[in-house]
């Protein structure tokens, strides 16, 4: 198992390098350093000298990937890619194109993103599994049919509808919670209730149906019929056997949302004016701030790969066969 984890770490390095290079190339296919300079200067008629000065101040006057005019190692070190992107592997995010410290911004904005994403993940996971178990427990009944129809309806509605509808009815008409905004400390709870509730409702349909499919596949297996034959009730079968043996696909599904714990939700944070990493990324895209965009893409890749590694390690706790491999 230890050798497997080491191999996964080694596989991650070329993967992260590929993501870094691909993000770099794609960004500069759309935007040249001259376009970035004009965007940051914010003027309709910018002189060529002003553009060149901005590029020189921010290090964008170098070649992109290869400096043919330089000597020895400087051919690839005196490039925009090396000076702007290689530091990411040491988590040195540098400065944004507007001059802000990206690392400091990430440390400050990660907490609002976590305050939304973590409760949404934990509460949503418990609710989705509970609803799915209920549908399996009462399968082939009107309760299951009604639940399936409700899940399909919830899945068919855009998350934007839940956001706008929740802000209008709960925030504006009922005035139970603020429509948008954020605060520090315990005062932030009133601003987080509505986003967490909307995240829970919008993901209930797809989540409950997916877990229901996993449980239905498991209840038809031989060991479940053997457990029933020994006299266990259906509730005991579901919680002691079915739920335990579906933990691997459940853990695999959870890892997909792990990066969102730090990266935040782009749409949710933008609509609710929450100063998290999601809104930070959206603002950077609108400003065409390449330094922030590449930092956030790289950070998301690192978190996702780290999540996959944690998933592999967690398999050893729910499946003894993995410990022996």
Query: Could you give the order of the helices and strands?
Result: HHHHHHHHHHHHHHHHH
Task: Count the E strands.
Answer: 0
Q: Number of helix segments? A: 17
**Would you identify the regions where 5 or more consecutive residues have pLDDT less than 50?**
none
What CATH architecture label of the domain at 103-288 applies? Orthogonal Bundle
- Coarse morphology: globular
Structural class designation: mainly alpha
In short:
The protein has a domain at 103-288: MetI-like (MetI-like fold).
Written account of the structure:
This protein has a domain at 103-288: MetI-like (MetI-like fold, Orthogonal Bundle). Helix content is 74%, strand content 0%. The protein is built from 17 helices and no strands. The chain is globular and about 80 Å long. The N and C termini lie close together (6 Å). The mean pLDDT is 84.
Q: Secondary-structure blueprint of this entry?
A:
Layout: H1 2-30, H2 33-41, H3 48-58, H4 74-77, H5 80-85, H6 102-137, H7 142-156, H8 159-173, H9 189-219, H10 222-229, H11 234-245, H12 247-255, H13 258-263, H14 266-271, H15 277-287, H16 290-318, H17 320-323
Descriptive tags:
325 residues; mainly alpha; MetI-like fold; 0% strand
């Amino acid at each position: 198992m230890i050798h497997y984890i080491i191999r996964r770490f080694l596989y991650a390095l070329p993967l992260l390098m590929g993501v870094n290079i691909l993000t770099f190339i794609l960004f500069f296919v759309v935007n040249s350093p001259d376009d970035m300079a004009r965007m940051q200067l914010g003027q309709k008629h910018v002189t060529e000298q002003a553009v060149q000065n901005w590029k020189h101040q921010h290090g964008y006057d170098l070649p992109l990937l290869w400096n043919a005019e330089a000597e020895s190692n400087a051919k690839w070190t005196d490039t925009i890619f090396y000076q702007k992107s290689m530091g990411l592997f040491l988590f040195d995010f540098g400065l944004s194109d507007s001059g802000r410290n990206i690392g400091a911004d990430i440390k400050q904005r990660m907490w609002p993103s976590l305050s939304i994403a973590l409760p949404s993940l934990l509460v949503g996971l418990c609710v989705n599994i509970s609803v799915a178990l209920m549908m399996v427990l009462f399968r082939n009944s009107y309760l299951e049919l009604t639940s399936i129809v409700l899940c399909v309806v919830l899945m068919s509605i855009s998350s934007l509808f839940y956001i706008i509808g929740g802000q209008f009815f709960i925030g504006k008409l009922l005035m139970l919670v603020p429509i948008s905004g954020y605060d520090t400390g315990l005062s932030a709870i009133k601003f987080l209730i509505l986003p967490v509730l909307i995240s829970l409702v919008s993901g209930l349909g797809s989540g409950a149906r997916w877990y229901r499919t996993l449980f239905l596949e498991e209840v038809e297996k031989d060991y479940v019929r053997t457990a029933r034959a020994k006299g266990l009730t259906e509730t005991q079968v579901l919680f002691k056997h079915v739920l335990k043996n579906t933990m691997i696909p459940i853990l695999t599904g959870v890892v997909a949302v792990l990066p969102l714990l730090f990266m935040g939700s782009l749409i949710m944070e933008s609509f609710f004016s929450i100063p998290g990493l999601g809104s930070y990324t959206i603002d950077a895209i609108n400003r065409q701030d390449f330094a922030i965009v590449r930092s956030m893409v790289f950070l998301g890749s690192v978190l996702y790969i780290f999540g996959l590694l944690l998933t592999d390690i967690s398999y050893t706790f729910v499946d003894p066969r993995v410990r022996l491999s």
